[in-house]
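If your schedule permits, I should be very grateful for your opinion on a structural question. I would ask you to consider whether the tokens describe a fold that such a sequence might reasonably adopt. Thank you for your consideration; the sequence and its tokens are set out here.
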Amino acid sequence: MSTTPPQAGERAEALGLFALQFHPVGTDPAEEGDYLLYNQCDGFHLASAWFDDGGFMGFFNFSSYEIPPDCYRAWAMLPTSHETLFNLFAKKPPALDSEGSR
């Protein structure tokens, strides 16, 4: 058994945690995927980044409405790998008792 404490990344991985890296408005994402946008007024929004041959087109919500850059302050890409979240939630949660407590 090692007496060396784990590095922050190793500990986070062991706990099933992952980090989101936020980028300011004006920095375009590099790939399609699901993103978390942050707005100072009303919090977080899910969006997809869309691209065409010319590059990044913008962020769009679930109903294909474009979210303009003045409607968010920062964005972060969400995990793209199923295993990232599957391993975190794969364990069966403790059973609830008759009163709904664990």
Remarks:
- Residues 32-81 form one domain.
- The first strand starts at residue 23 and ends at 24.
